[in-house]
Amino acid sequence: MAMVTVFRASISRSLPTSFPNLLSSSSNRNSIPKKHRLLCYAASSQTKTIRSEVSFCIGTHLIPHPKKVERGGEDAFLVSDYNGGVIAVADGVSGWAEQNVDPSLFPQELMANASCLVEDEEVNYDPQILIRKAHAATSAVGSATVIVAMLETNGTLKIANVGDCGLRAIRGDRIIFSTSPQEHYFDCPYQLSSEMVGQTYLDAVVSRVEVMEGDTIVMGSDGLFDNVFDHEIVSTVAGHGDVAAAGIS
């Protein structure tokens, strides 16, 4: 899972602007292998300000591992403007390549299904239930770690996480909330799978954090948090006061 998927989402109050769900894998992204370039934000042309009240202003970037650029990497992500905003990352498990299975197919389908289910009545804007239904609808062979965050317009951020994708909530110069990775043992994270041996939505760590205007959410795969220390993330965020002004560096 040596790939970096990075969300930077600022909490803002803005005039309503709608845009369709954004679903992406890494197949059309370029590799940026240098460590100091691991933490990247989308340029203003890729950034959308969504809805009134409290909502996300989001920038995204995918950085495939240099050895996986040709096949596009193994991550997928989801952005939705529903309610206060929904962001999710799924990181495909590389070991499937040893069985001649493309590790990117499972996370791509998982995120595609989640995109279709964000507004589902049964999901009821619950990230854990979204994981359950998206997983049940996924038929591809493989497995993936996954994290989903849903922002209520009242400032409550709801998070469900299976595995070692992560999220940091930053206020000013400090981290006010951090997820913790779930692992069976080193380099073997919890994961949703097409096989019975994997985990389910019931294994997700579910969290709530109260955020406010001006806070920054950084979400990514283990490729980010395994290579960039938290204090480096905070200092990088501090150097870019607004997502819309941040460019890919």
From TrEMBL:
Superkingdom of origin: Eukaryota
SMART domains: PP2Cc
Transmembrane segments: none
Single GO molecular function: protein serine/threonine phosphatase activity
Keyword Kinase (UniProt): no
Catalytic activity from the UniProt record: O-phospho-L-seryl-[protein] + H2O = L-seryl-[protein] + phosphate; O-phospho-L-threonyl-[protein] + H2O = L-threonyl-[protein] + phosphate
Domain PPM-type phosphatase span(s) in chain numbering: 60-249
Cofactor(s) needed: Mg(2+); Mn(2+)
Assigned keywords, A-Z: Hydrolase, Magnesium, Manganese, Metal-binding, Protein phosphatase
EC number: 3.1.3.16
Matching InterPro entries: PPM-type-like_dom_sf, PPM-type_phosphatase-like_dom, PPTC7
The family this protein is said to belong to: Belongs to the PP2C family.
Protein name: Protein phosphatase
Organism (species): Populus trichocarpa
Organism lineage string: Eukaryota, Viridiplantae, Streptophyta, Embryophyta, Tracheophyta
